[in-house]
Amino acid sequence: MTALRQRMIAAMQMHGFSPRTHQSYLAAVRDLAKFTHRAPDTLMPDDVQCYFEHLVRERGLAPASVRLFYHGIRFFYLQVLNWPAVDLAVTLPKRPQRIPELLTREEVAAILRACADVRHHMMLSLCYGCGLRLNEVLAVRVGDIDGERRLLRIEQGKGAKDRMVPLSPTLLAQLRAYWRAYRPGAWLFAGRAGTRLAPTTLQKAFTQAKQRAGVHKVGGIHGLRHAYATHQLAAGLPVQRLQRLLGHQSIHTTLRYVHWLPSAREGEGMLDVIAQLEAAHG
Question: Core-binding (CB) domain location, by residue (predicted)?
């Protein structure tokens, strides 16, 4: 490991970035060096700008990928090399505004029924029942379950924030039955060596269950989190409460679910509430 790479890892650790962000940002700097055939700390702003023009015009990367590379490289120059500023005349491609193919309650139930593996079924149930991200469900420990208060503690979720989410009586009963059957150690869903499962394990389980259930909507396991959010809104949950349950830092991230779900804003005055929330948060 080079000294420069070590410095970047240390800087990301100080900022509390997730392992996934570490991988993405390091990959961005590595790709920059590969393109320029020079060490990143020897480059000039014009070299970096040329690289981003290459990503957009020649490689045709998706807008989300270009932005991820941009943030990773910008972090490297500002926080690792201590450049005073990173002013690049790069027009980042706009993110396409697409509404995902949202799963209905019936489709979620069909997917869960089609998942025969007890452990995978429990994990997918927790993803939907608590609106968890993939990495969050993999990181659940036995001690995170508060059966008395029917709460699940999500430790250091995205953005390095802890939060508590409610467990329904049905979901809590399923978790207790799972614990009695498997007697897990520290991790609720551990691999053979007692360590956390790899994300691909649950992703494959979801894809296979969706195929067996005959659900053909596009989207991966994150669709269960989207379904949780839209179903909660449709049931009348306030947007601010949903923001806290999902662990969103910005209300704008949560408001997209309101716009995706017409029924959630059909109530009297709902459009006024949305406008007030957006105005209050800039």
Answer: 1-81
Q: Determine the Cα–Cα distance for residues 130 and 91; give it in Å rounded to an integer.
A: 38
Residues 6 or more apart in contact with residue 218 via CB below 8 angstroms? 100, 101
Q: Would you please indicate which residues are annotated as catalytic (active-site) residues?
A: 133, 158, 222, 225, 248, 257
Task: Extract the tokens encoding 21.
Answer: 């962000």
Q: What is the pLDDT of residue 120?
A: 95
Q: Lay out the sheet containing 161-166: strands in order across.
A: 145-146, 151-157, 161-166
**Cβ(27)–Cβ(71) below 8 Å:** no
The CATH number covering residue 147 comes to 1.10.443.10
What is the mean pLDDT of the segment spanning 225-245?
92
Q: What is the mean pLDDT of residues 32-55?
A: 90
Mean pLDDT along residues 87-101: 68
The yes-or-no verdict on residue 135 having pLDDT over 70 is: yes
pLDDT computed for residue 169 by the predictor: 94
* Residue 184 located in a structural domain: yes
